[in-house]
Design a protein that fits this description.
By secondary structure, the chain is α+β, with helices and mostly antiparallel strands. The protein is built from twelve helices and nine strands.
């Protein structure tokens, strides 16, 4: 029996005494924390001002008035004593109560005669005199969830996600006519497209994080989501590399990864569109649909690039278009019906990490092929392809930014 086998045998049959020594520090740690929580530190000090935080999560306008959904993200319970709308005090109904425990959500019903198109300001005053504000930029009746609206949102997501990606994939026969150097340029173009997307995804995530309750550390969720998703996908990729060595399978897998990363990004685009319609910004929502549709057609080129040495069936292209574009439908539903800033920040982080992993995989493909054929991996042509990818995405993004 060798040394490794001996160690494995010892590890698998730990004596009771060793197990107790492993558990003892944890028991003592729990006891210390419990003592501190119960007895305190002995330092008595009163805060200069009460610590209260009320987050206005959603404002809904209907025939009955204004409905405000709030979250108590502060350290202690709060009581909402008064409600002020446009400078006037108003009676309100609270559900479940006007007092909210930490992390408890509540709904405030205000019978206020809001005016179509006018801005409105809602102020919530706690029993300690702190004021928290929610605003409606331009009042419009909130859309009521119905089967018809559900289908309309799905159609919008299909227009924005699946169709433009599918149109981009139609360039595949043209792209296959390129030489090896030309293929590397197309792959570099794909990296450029993805570089722009990952930066854009991070920016969108940080915007959502800024709107999320501070206690949930939205910025950290973006970074953690990106790091963990990127490392997880790299680990999965390395595990698959041990099982599959076929270059054909490699190209197909890379295309699916690109489609998955882009799909997570398009989920965020769907969130933006659905949210715009949910708050009555129909003009903005329509503008986003047109801009994202033009923007997303270039994504099909990036998905098709790893398949240039293969002959995939039409079913493969349909599947890739659905993987990359389908999440836009889900995002539109989420934005229109159940939008949440905290979860949105996390999803954007996961999407950014997925795109980073795809950039890593494609770069590794170019390096591997260049070494095999004695080509320069960072040639002027490849640099030009990468720059062109960034420029294309930047120009098409001008159709969306506002």
């Amino acid at each position: 029996m060798n040394y490794a086998d001996q160690r494995e045998t010892k590890t698998s049959s730990l004596p009771l005494k060793a197990i107790l020594w492993g558990i003892l520090p944890l028991i003592l740690l729990i006891a210390i924390i419990g003592t501190i929580a119960k007895v305190g530190t002995g330092i008595e000090s009163e805060p200069a001002a009460p610590i209260e935080v009320v987050n206005v999560e959603k404002i809904t306008l209907n025939d009955d008035g204004i409905q405000v959904k709030v979250l108590n993200s502060g350290p202690e319970e709060i009581t909402i004593a008064q409600v002020v709308v446009d400078g006037a005090f108003w009676n309100a109904e609270f559900s479940p109560s006007d007092t909210l425990q930490r992390f408890e959500r509540g709904t405030i019903l205000i019978p206020y005669p809001w005016v179509q198109g006018d801005p409105h300001e809602i102020k919530l005053i706690t029993s300690n005199g702190l004021i928290f504000t929610g605003e409606v930029a331009a009042a419009a009746a909130t859309l009521t969830p119905t089967g018809k609206l559900f289908a309309q949102y799905a159609l919008i997501g299909f227009y924005v996600g699946v169709i433009p990606v599918g149109l981009g994939l139609l360039w595949y026969p043209f792209l296959r006519r390129f030489s090896v150097k030309g293929m590397h340029v197309i792959l570099s173009l794909t990296i450029g497209l993805l570089f722009f997307l990952v930066i854009d995804t991070f920016e969108e995530g940080f915007e959502m994080a800024a709107e999320a309750p501070g206690v949930f550390q939205g910025t950290g969720l973006v970074w953690f989501g990106a790091l963990l998703s990127c490392l997880f996908l790299i680990a999965v990729d390395q595990s698959n590399d041990r099982k599959l060595s076929s270059r054909t399978l490699e190209g197909s897998r890379v295309s699916r990864k690109i489609a998955t990363g882009i799909g997570l990004h398009n989920f965020g685009e769907g969130l933006a569109i659905g949210s715009a319609f949910a708050v009555g910004e129909a003009a903005l929502g329509t503008f986003l649909i047109i801009g994202f549709t033009l923007h997303n057609i270039t994504e099909g080129v990036g998905i098709a690039a790893p398949l240039l040495k293969e002959r995939p069936s039409w079913k493969t292209f349909v599947t890739l278009a659905l993987i990359a574009g389908g999440p836009a439908i889900i995002g539109t539903w989420a934005g229109g019906f159940i939008f949440n800033d905290t979860l949105a920040a996390l999803f954007f982080g996961i999407g950014a990490g997925a795109i980073l992993q795809v950039i890593y995989v494609i770069s590794k493909m170019i390096l591997k092929e260049s070494e095999k054929r004695s080509l320069s991996p960072v040639s002027w042509l490849n640099f030009g392809g990468l720059s062109a990818g960034i420029l294309i995405m930047y120009i098409t993004a001008l159709m969306v930014k506002f």
